[in-house]
Amino acid sequence: MKKIIVLFSILTVIVFSATAQEYQNAVGIRLGPNSPAISPGFTLKHFLNETSAIEGIIGISNGLGLCALYEWHHPIESVDHLHWFVGAGGYAAFRYSTTFIGAAGIAGLDYKFDQIPLNISLDWKPELNIITNVGFDASAIGVSARFTF
Q1: CA 148, CA 143: separation in Å to the nearest integer?
Q2: CB contact at 8 A, 121 and 111
């Protein structure tokens, strides 16, 4: 029985270390096009567990945009420190005298450097504007660089 417990413990550690996210929090900048809601600005990501994260984006170009996303991260086994992710959320933006409110999706790649506290990601974040001008914008490709802690 003792050998089974030790073996089970070792296997559990191996499984969780293979799938665990490599950072808990990250804060940085996001660059991309000026979409109706979220433009270039700041990004904050916090992991709730090994595979689930929440991300906030604050766009600061031509007004203020706020976006909140829930994301699911999965490792790419063939490349250390690289994960793919998908997620969904919503946004509100205030540009000039117009308010935009809508839904957003996200899909991308997330890489954490091994020796330094830096994370970079490339993502596609389409937006469905619901309030003010109903419409879909699929051109929101962004690049983020974040300090991890």
Answers
A1: 16
A2: yes
Alpha carbon of residue 102 to chain centroid = 18
> Of 2, 43, 35, 30, whose CA–CA distance to 129 is shortest?
35
What pLDDT score does 36 carry?
59
Residues of the chain whose pLDDT is less than 50? 4-19
